[in-house]
């Protein structure tokens, strides 16, 4: 499962910085102010409905394949996402709510699952993730990024709102602006003669990783472990590529730096533990997540999390207990820390208690 994807893998960092600053481009109705990729997308579909791009990939989950003909007369929200991305997971509650609230009134939500990591291209993994995440709206697996490219897309998540006549009316990159998207949905459904009243945020709730983020205290950015995109690594001697190596932690670990200790084999997309081993990150955020996987199917890996050298207690994440113990049994994103007390700089340690842990990336929120 070590197929290389680094040549076309995209970072989520760029749009996240814009989202927190309120700079994410948004066009709701009227002409789109689009960068060149989206201009090309618009021109490509001048004589063909945008929804025909949905025919470019597969398989489909939660229903039959959809295209412009199948969706004729319906308002459609197309959302690009991937199941290992924390930013994608947090929008699922809104997609579910819109489908439930407006599905019988003419709205269809379509998820385009465009993978970042190789394991997300596997249909069995995606099917399991949809079950785990309670995703019931139609989803197409865009493993070769054909739909992604046809739309000129460049972010996870990204929303495209298409009217019943098949024309693109609005686009949003990243998290947020849900009220504006909903107003546009209502307008296109013809339900609101005057100012639209969106769903109140208090009604749309999420638990665990799908709960609302805390951008106010977010001072740490996405960090990759595989050497294809590794950054901010400070263990003495640096990363050794594609060879088992014994690593040692640095004497001091500055904020937003990470290190390895024990035996690891660092590949292009992930690092694999070769026995008792640990990865350490000094961070500032309410939540810390890691994309992790066992290296062999049906061979789960036990892990232990520590914060500042101690059990996390009330600061444990969704996927570990107060004692810091957890189990990595399938490839996905794991929430390992959620600070219950005021957010502070913390030192995070993840110990692999068994060999065969694959570590892909850190994300925060």
Produce the secondary structure layout.
Blueprint: H1 13-21, E1 26-28, H2 36-44, E2 60-61, E3 75-81, H3 86-89, H4 92-102, E4 107-113, H5 123-132, E5 139-141, H6 146-151, E6 158-162, E7 168-173, H7 178-188, E8 223-224, E9 244-247, E10 258-266, E11 271-283, E12 287-294, E13 301-307, E14 325-328, E15 332-338, E16 346-352, E17 357-364
Q: Which features characterize this protein?
A:
365 residues, alpha+beta, Glutaredoxin, Jelly Rolls, 2 domains, 10-stranded antiparallel β-sheet, 7-stranded mixed β-sheet, 7 helices, 17 strands, elongated, disordered N terminus
Describe this entry's structure for a reader.
- This protein has 2 domains: 13-210, Glutaredoxin (3-Layer(aba) Sandwich), CATH 3.40.30.10; 215-364, Jelly Rolls (Sandwich).
- It is 16% helix and 28% strand.
- The protein has 7 helices and 17 strands.
- It has helices at residues 13-21, 36-44, 86-89, 92-102, 123-132, 146-151, 178-188; strands at 26-28, 60-61, 75-81, 107-113, 139-141, 158-162, 168-173, 223-224, 244-247, 258-266, 271-283, 287-294, 301-307, 325-328, 332-338, 346-352, 357-364.
- The longest helix has 11 residues, at 92-102.
- The protein starts with 12 loop residues before the first helix and ends with a strand.
- The model is unreliable at 1-36 and 42-47 (pLDDT under 50).
């Amino acid at each position: 499962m070590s197929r290389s994807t680094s040549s076309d893998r995209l970072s989520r960092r760029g749009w996240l910085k814009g989202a927190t600053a309120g700079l994410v481009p948004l066009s709701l109705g009227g002409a789109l102010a689009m960068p060149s990729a989206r201009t090309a997308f618009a021109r490509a579909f001048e004589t063909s409905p945008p929804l025909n791009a949905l025919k470019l990939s597969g398989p489909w989950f939660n229903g039959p394949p959809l295209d412009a003909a199948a969706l004729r007369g319906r308002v459609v929200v197309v959302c690009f996402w991937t199941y290992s991305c924390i930013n994608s997971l947090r929008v699922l509650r809104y997609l579910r709510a819109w489908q439930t609230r407006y599905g019988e009134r003419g709205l269809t939500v379509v998820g385009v699952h465009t993978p970042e990591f190789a394991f997300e291209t596997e249909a069995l993994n995606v099917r399991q993730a949809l079950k785990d995440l309670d995703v019931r709206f139609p989803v197409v697996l865009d493993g070769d990024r054909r739909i992604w490219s046809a739309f000129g897309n460049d972010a996870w998540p990204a929303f495209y709102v298409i009217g019943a006549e098949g024309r693109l009316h609005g686009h949003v990159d990243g998290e947020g602006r849900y009220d504006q998207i909903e107003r546009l949905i209502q307008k296109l459904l013809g339900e609101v003669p005057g100012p639209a009243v969106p769903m109140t945020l208090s009604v749309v709730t999420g638990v665990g990783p799908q709960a609302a983020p805390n951008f106010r205290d977010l001072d740490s950015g996405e960090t990759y472990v595989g050497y294809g995109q590794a950054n901010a690594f400070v263990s003495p001697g640096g990363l050794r590529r594609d060879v088992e190596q014994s690593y040692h932690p640095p004497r001091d670990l500055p904020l937003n730096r990470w290190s390895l200790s024990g035996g690891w084999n660092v590949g292009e997309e992930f690092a694999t533990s070769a026995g008792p081993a640990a990865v350490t990150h000094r961070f500032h955020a309410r939540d810390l997540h890691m994309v992790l996987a066992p290296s062999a199917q049906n061979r789960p890996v036990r892990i232990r999390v520590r914060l500042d050298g101690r059990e996390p207690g009330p600061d444990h994440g969704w996927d570990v207990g107060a004692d810091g113990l957890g189990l990595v049994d399938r490839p996905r994103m794991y929430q390992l820390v959620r600070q219950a007390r005021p957010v502070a700089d913390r030192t995070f340690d993840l110990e692999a208690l068994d060999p065969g842990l694959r570590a892909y990336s850190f994300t925060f929120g």
